[in-house]
Amino acid sequence: MATATLSNGVTPTKYQKHSDFPGIQSLYNFRQVESKNGITTKKLLFRSSRPDLLHADEVDEFMGLGIKCIIDLRSHAEFSFVEGNKYLQTKGLYGTCVINLPKNRNYKPGEEVSCTEKDHNTGEEVSDATCHHYLIDFFQKAYIKNIVNRAPWYVKILSIFVFLFDVLFRTNFYYLVRLFGYFVLNPGGLASTYIDILELSQTSICAALKLLTKKENLPALINCAHGKDRTGITSALVLLLLGETTENVIQDYTQSEKALEPIKSRLHDEIVKRFNWDESFMYAKPETLETALNHIHHKYGSVENYLESIGFGRSEQQLLRENLGYSPDSITFN
User: Fold this and answer.
1) For residues 231 and 73, what is the distance between their CA atoms, to the nearest angstrom?
2) Could you give the maximum distance between any two Cα atoms of the chain, in Å?
3) Cβ distance 219 to 8 under 8 Å?
4) How far apart are CA 147 and CA 141, in angstroms?
5) 19: pLDDT strictly greater than 60
6) Number of Cβ atoms within 10 Å of the Cβ of 63
7) What are phi and psi for residue 116, nearest 5 degrees?
8) Neighbours of 211 (CB within 10 A)
9) If 0-12 CB within 10 Å is exposed, 13-18 middle and 19+ buried, where does residue 261 land?
10) What confidence tens digit (pLDDT) does each residue in 163-173 have?
11) CB neighbour class for 82 (10 Å; exposed up to 12, middle 13-18, buried from 19)
12) Cis geometry, peptide bond prior to residue 102 (ω within 30 degrees of 0)
């Protein structure tokens, strides 16, 4: 008897019931990342907010997507700190693996991504876990140093005492983040933060894209906390690499605002109340991503040039396209 397959080309497991992806109630801002230039109907790449909040009765629905790896654009500390059932990890369905980013340099084209497997409960290194839940820290030392250097002198002095307070009371740097959020991030706005990510989180972006060059990682899900900012930038780069128009990429980005509307109060708590950021950071306005993409084109000339400069070479770019079902002939760049 012939083996059945899902519409994403994956052979069903005991979890897989769906011929198409379902709407999972607790997985907000969830959708497929796809371009009209595709030559396949397989669903190979998705994006969403954090899947930590899935209910027990939603796990089977999630597994029905056939997702082989979760590319989580959060640090291990951020993932561990936030609340949630985290059934995908606690049930042993996805092993947690922390990406080891290069120190003080970018990746080289063709360089492999390495990781350290972690036990979800203890945080200790393990050797037998399945590395399907990759954690990538987007806010490394270079990013933090840049934010500190841009602060007024009196904020830098105050930050010393705030830092000591946070360490003493183990707040996970709650007050330090609020201090720099108010005095540094808010004046620049969300678009400026996106440019900072493009310039200061290049190894993190590159690592995420390199994972997509491995067929064994597909289908994949890209997520961060809300699936809007870190995920929005990474998804935009993928879509542009697939030949999607800038207008359509921006339109896809703005869908996050409507998709997150049901949890707007939670966004306010996690962005405004917790981090002391301006309310504008809650939204996904077209001009925000447009400003970030204009930065790429003005400084690097194209997305392809930008990606090559951060260590994601032309051959890797082509491999990503092919893995996601796009042929060179189907892609036209704008």
Assistant:
1) 7
2) 73
3) yes
4) 10
5) no
6) 19
7) -115, 125
8) 20
9) exposed
10) 999 999 999 89
11) middle
12) no
Q: Would you state the structure tokens that stand for residue 201, as one six-digit string?
A: 């989180």
Residues ≥6 apart with Cβ < 8 Å to 141: none
Which ranges of the chain would DSSP assign to H, the alpha helix? 59-63, 76-81, 87-90, 141-149, 153-169, 174-180, 186-200, 202-211, 230-241, 246-259, 264-267, 286-300, 303-309, 314-323
Taking a C-beta distance cutoff of 8 angstroms, is the pair 197, 138 a contact?
yes
pLDDT band (50, 70, 90) for residue 39: low
Closest to 77 (Cα-Cα) out of 156, 3, 136: 136
Residue 141: band (very low, low, confident or very high) from pLDDT cuts 50, 70, 90: very high
pLDDT of 278 over the 80 cut: yes
pLDDT (tens digit, 9 = 90+) per residue, 217-276?
999 999 999 999 999 999 999 999 999 999 999 999 999 999 999 999 999 999 999 999
CB 223 within 8 A of CB 293: no
Six-digit token pair at 102? 């290069």
Is CATH 3.90.190.10 what the domain over 31-324 is classified as, yes or no? Answer: yes
pLDDT of residue 328 exceeding 70, the answer is no
pLDDT in tens, 190-212: 999 999 999 999 999 999 999 99
The set of residues, in sequence order, having a beta carbon less than 8 Å from that of 322 and lying 6+ positions away, is: none
